[in-house]
Amino acid sequence: MSEAEGEVIRFDNVGLRYGTEKEVLSDLSFTLYPGSFYFLTGASGAGKTSLLKLLYLAQRPSRGKIQMFGTDVITLPRENLPRLRRRLGVVFQDFRLVPHLSAFDNVALPLRVAGVPEQDIAQPVADMLDWVGLSHRSEARPATLSGGEQQRVAIARAVIARPDLLVADEPTGNVDPDMALKLLRLFEALNRLGTTVVVATHDVHLLRKVEDSLIMRLDRGRLSDPTGALRYPPRRMQVAE
Amino acid sequence: MKRPPVLSRAAGRGLARFAGARAAALVPQARLGGPMPWVIAIMIALTAIAAAFGLALDNLADNARAEISGGLTVQLVEPLPDERNRQAEVAVAILSNHEGVAQVRRVPDAELEALIEPWLGDVGELEDAIPVPALVDVRLRGPVTDRRIAQLRQALARQVPAARIDGQAVWLEPVFAAITSLQWLAMGLVVLLALTSAAAVWLAARSALGSNRDTIEIVHLLGGTDGQIARIFQRSIGFDALFGGAIGLALGTAAILVLGRQFAALGSGMVAGGGLALADWLLLAAIPLIGVALAMLTARLTVLAELRRML
């Protein structure tokens, strides 16, 4: 097995700038390993959302090299990106649910996009809505759901296809502490099934809630490694699933 | 915490088609409530009328050409009636035996008088004052050429010195030129209307893309391919074009039938030759289908061009 095959993502000297502005991300070099749980922290404007955009392939960096699941995404032709994106789950800070689709159809969307037959969709989506406690709201449109309910639909949509990498941008930002903890437990459960999880958050209290989680701290576009786990990852993470 | 329900990973990673009504539901469908089907209906109706006009002119020109093809007129301009009659009989005899002549007919005096009566009144009373030339209609096998006219002229020259020969097509050449110009005009209108329809679809597709940009971005980030997203818009605009095309064809056909009846009522032989044949009606019926194909192609290319701006 090559080194890259045991990694989810590897960044080498990655920088990102928008237009001719100064870099919002500079000299990022790190590796994310399968089955690990990362918190991405940093002050507002530190570049968390920009880094997440690179992780969920909404953006290409201005410089440096990114490998995802062993594939160089910098040189990867655009038409091959969907195949990689289908291995990702994304929870957006603003949920980004499709407004005229029901909760059920929003959660089913990744499966339909992936071409899963309709008869194989109903049960997993119903189970997923039940898992996030929204089976009674499956036909509700996003506009009629509370912030917390929308958040849970967004999470259900992100995890329904069992992604290899789950990226969540402030997933607990719109819910009360109890719900935040509950959502975190959902991510932990998924992580235990082998999904690598990256959660961007301001909430320092959350960091202590997940056992064995690693912390990535962004400060003005540069990454610090307060626990040393990025530079010296635990040996178990360097072994493929 | 209970175990999360998840699909096997392999099931979610195909690149199968995301199509049909489920995919179309991602973009709100206005259908007849929106302007697009009606814009397309007007375009298709105008295109059908312009195409019918061009086809009718084509038929009219073909019929007229077939009627006068190989036709010649020999005029005998001779003031003395007896000599005129003699030369006419000689001309008929010479032409009847000439190689390549299919038919010869002397136009009866009564027919000639009827032709000029609307302008000159009763010619019989003016016979001495205004000598009317004798006319001989000749139909050749094959087309009339300058060379063949020259041969006939030579054959008649010695015994029928009063003969003047004209190809009938020459008289109608300006009419044919005008018909050809009108046909080009009709074709130009059809092309312009097709371009206008494509431009309308382009604007509609861009507008739909703009108002559904968030949804498209989500599908894009969930792993939707450009082709999948383009198909959603193609399908939507295809349905709009189909509704609009059906309405437009019905409107256009009604207009063509009404105009056709009015022209037929003129009773002119030439205009009557401009009716539409079955093949013409089939071509007109194909216009909405061509419109649907054009609209879907335009929508696809527009959406793909916009999507290429995203990563």
Q: Which key terms come to mind for this protein?
A:
heterodimer; A: 241 residues; alpha/beta; six-stranded mixed sheet; four-stranded antiparallel sheet; 10 strands; globular; B: 311 residues; alpha+beta; 10 helices; 8% strand
Describe the structure.
The complex is a heterodimer of chains A (241) and B (311). Chain A is α/β, with parallel strands linked by helices and 241 residues long. Chain A has helices spanning 48-55, 81-85, 103-113, 122-131, 147-159, 177-192, 204-207; strands at residues 9-16, 25-32, 37-42, 63-68, 71-72, 88-91, 165-169, 196-200, 214-219, 222-224. Chain A has a six-stranded mixed sheet, sandwiched between helices. In chain A, helix 3 (103-113) crosses helix 4 (122-131) and helix 3 (103-113) packs parallel to helix 5. Chain B has 311 residues and is α+β, with helices and mostly antiparallel strands. Chain B folds into two domains: 19-65 and 174-307, no CATH class; 78-161, no CATH class. Chain B is 66% helix and 8% strand. Chains A and B meet through helix 2, helix 3, helix 4 and helix 6 of A and helix 7 of B.
Q: Gist?
A:
The complex is a heterodimer of chains A (241) and B (311). By secondary structure, chain A is of the alpha/beta class.
Rounded radius of gyration of chain A (Å) = 18 Å
Quantity of strands of chain A, as a count:
10
- Report the biggest beta sheet of chain A as strand number plus sense, adding barrel if it closes: 6 strands, mixed
Q: What is the strand content of chain A?
A: 15-25%
Main interface: chain pair and counts: A-B, 46 and 37 residues
- Order of strands, main sheet of chain B, comes to 2-3-1-4
Strand count, sense and closure of the main sheet of chain B? 4 strands, antiparallel
Which percent range fits the helix content of chain A? 25-40%
Category from helices, strands and their pairing of chain A = alpha/beta
Widest sheet: strand ordering of chain A: 6-7-8-3-9-10
Shape of chain A: globular
Q: What is the residue-averaged pLDDT of chain A?
A: 87
